[in-house]
Fold this sequence. Notes:
Low-confidence stretches: none
Strand content: under 5%
Oligomer: single chain
Radius of gyration: 23 Å
Number of strands: 0
Mean pLDDT: 86
Number of helices: 19
Distance between the termini: 16 Å
Shape: globular
Amino acid sequence: MIFLSRQTKTVEKSAVLIGIFTLLSSLLGILRNSLLASYLGASRNIDIYYASFRIPDFIFNIFIMGAITAGFIPLLSKYIHTQKDEVNDFVNAIINLVLITSLIFGVLLAIFATPVIGFLFKGLDTNAKLTIVSMTRVMMLQPIILGFSAILGNILLVHNFVLSFALAPLLYNLGIILGIVFLYPRLGMMGLAYGVVLGAILNLIVKFVPMKLIDIKLGRVSITKMKKYFREFSSLILPRTLSVINIQIFLFVVSYFISFLSAGKLGIFNLANSFQDLPQTVFAVSIATAAFPALSGMYHQNNMEGVKDLYIKSLQQINFVMLLVTSSLLVLKYPVVKILLYYGNFSLSATQSVANILHIMTFGIIFSALLLLNLDTLFSWEDTKTPLIASFVAYLIGTIMIASLYKTFDLPGIVFSMVVANSIYCLIMMRQIIKKLKINIWPMVIKFMNNLSIAVLSGIIGLLVSQWSNGLVITSLVGDMLVNILLPMVFIFVTYISLAKWLKFEEINVLTSIILKKFKRL
Length: 522
């Protein structure tokens, strides 16, 4: 376990390390989704599985991730730089507050799960609702365990122990896979719920090794100190919590309207969403997560120029990678989805449906990828009001659009509304950041248009290669993957990188040099 105790010293190296392990975790996530689709098919059972996540995810995002993202890291950075003697008490106070709160709400929602599920998924039949209630009550352990794990992970991140932080999601996916393969055949749908809890436990365990090297001791803290830190903490987390509530309510709205559609549509939506989330998690989230402690630290040192430079640099890195991903997905969505999902009980028509929904989502992937960076940048200077207002406006518009479009356009209408809402959310926050940091937007616009141009050209070349390869007769799965996916992807990648080098994009040199150094060390 010595390798878990190594520290990283720069934002770029942290981002690469997080990215590498996030990629491994995402590969396990792909395997998880493939197994889930293979075992359950595009059936009501897959709808039940994803519906059972809604309330646990609500608890986790509202009371854990919302609070941690908005208040914990900025305040921890503040105490580390200005009041080191209070760090230990602050950490333990927040751990107790967050866990107690999540436990109370978890118990209440578990008790009243039946009427809540009945309201949220009104379109489902009675048996499906009862199964969701049973699975939800087991899965309510997940946000409590992951909440404690998330706090430890952010402590490790601030102290540059990135590896354990990055490894934890991989173990979470591993636990879910074990549930699908070993518990589902024996216990049915409840086995999937137990697999989720197992993944959360594995996610927590890996954090304890490097925690021993940090001068923070976990333990009790007095009620007086808890009240003191709660006042400071709550002033930051309340607007952030309301922002997250807006997001979670919007996701409930999405699930509510999908429940009135035919069986399997909620599963199709979530599978497509997981595919468009994957590159964001590997690249955009890695960059934003690694930048957040640095952004917060520079703000508390009154280094707004540093915040400005790091924001622009991170934004351009995300744009560079995600535009390549966008052009690749638009060209290769169907063969990629087919090779990942077309197994067992998952039919060819269901595979086509996932690809069609992914196609719509891809047009908004650049805005979704920038959401976390914008949120982290605003939170680094303790601005929680802008995300609140932006989320309210964006998701109100999205809800009105969904209610207007779902009957006529079915699932594509719902997904299109989501893309519009996320884009509005991102642009409102970005406008405030540009204003606050006094950024000259024209160099950024020109850079983005150049980047978009090479992405379009790369996509056109990839499409031509894909159309040519589709005319070939391939009899094996491996041959089909090589010809219909890897060959066009190589042409897209080579064209994109070559044009970027010709235009002298600095993102290539920075990321390439860090990756090469990392692999040399490995």
